[in-house]
């Protein structure tokens, strides 16, 4: 697909690529940023609320790679939209689906990346 956005890639990886939410967001960021960094964290263990402190894996991955100066804003915007940062709470509120969390984290991270490049 031509002109893929980070959001497109993240959602594809999450739905069809057999990646959990954290892996999908991280891999989409790598593709969009052109940075191929190794994670010390094994993101395959960070889906389904298993990220540290029970965070949603999508926002956890976004926090790992976001520009340091934008990380707080990215986190706040995610929490405002999702109602929480904690996977279990997000799912119990039924405000956003897991796919929607991946979409939100990828969209916020994409904006973060565009600011960093500008």
Structural notes for this entry:
Helix content is 60%, strand content 0%. It has one domain (6-117). The protein has 118 residues and is mainly α. It starts with 5 loop residues before the first helix and ends with a helix.
Sheet with most strands: none
Could you list the spans in which at least 5 consecutive residues all have pLDDT below 50?
A: none
Question: Helical element count?
Answer: 6
**Shape from CA axes?**
globular
Q: How are the secondary structure elements laid out?
A:
Layout: H1 6-15, H2 21-33, H3 57-65, H4 71-82, H5 87-93, H6 98-117
Helix pairs in contact: 1-2, 1-6, 2-3, 2-6, 3-6, 4-6
Keyword list:
0% strand, 118 residues, single chain, 60% helix, globular, mainly alpha
Short summary of the structure?
The protein is mainly α and 118 residues long.
């Amino acid at each position: 697909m031509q002109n893929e956005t980070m959001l497109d890639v993240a959602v594809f990886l999450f739905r069809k690529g057999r990646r959990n939410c954290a892996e999908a967001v991280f891999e989409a960021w790598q593709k969009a940023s052109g940075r191929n960094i190794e994670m010390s964290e094994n993101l395959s263990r960070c889906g389904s609320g298993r990220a540290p402190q029970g965070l949603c894996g999508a926002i956890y991955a976004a926090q790992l790679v976001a520009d340091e100066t934008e990380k707080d804003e990215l986190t706040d915007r995610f929490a405002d939209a999702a109602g929480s940062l904690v996977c279990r709470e997000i799912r119990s509120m039924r405000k956003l689906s897991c796919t929607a969390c991946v979409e939100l984290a990828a969209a916020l991270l994409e904006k973060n990346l565009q600011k960093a490049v500008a």
